[in-house]
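Same chain as my last thread, 217 residues:
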Amino acid sequence: MSASFLLVYILAFVSWDFALAHEPSPLQDFCVADFNSTVRVNGFACLDPKQVTADNFLFRGLNIPGNTSNPLGSFVNRPTVLEIPGLNTLGISTVRVDYAPGGVVPPHRHPRASEILTVVAGTVFVGFVTSHPENRLISKTLHEGDVFVFPFGLIHFQQNVGQGNAVTMAFLSSQNPGVIAIANTVFGSKPAINDQVLAKAFRVDKSIIHQLQAPHN
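reply #2:
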């Protein structure tokens, strides 16, 4: 096998691997999720098209402000395929976030999606952190009508930095993007991550780790 042919083969293999590294394209008009099916696939089995109605593609309520009376000062309304069965295989979902003044969506990541966010009302500071070894913060203060993109899988956050309430809407490239809240994951895992591991990783005393791992109301 010549070196040039081997290189083409490797590139083709890598390209094929990348081509499969996203949710598959639909092979029919729709595949409404059948939550009662015992078939286990990457997603949900398809409901019989004869049983499909318009309600399978409908979600009501994104116009309703969320309750931000909580320690974070934010409320996330995130309908996924579980709330909109018609999203199944379409590779997209949406989210509305309401923010009290100073409210935050803490650092988190979506393991299965990139995200595009627009500010509907207020002023919101957003940012994401690039991967190792640079770990560079890329951030911007957004105003009504501004749009910002969070790349696939990277840690990102939002904060209301205006005087009044704020609202953002976002769209994600997965029917079920998932969310990994960094602090909750690291300090709230069950069972807990060994305190020595965390103390070394964050370069703090174990007492600080114990404080962070303690339940908070």
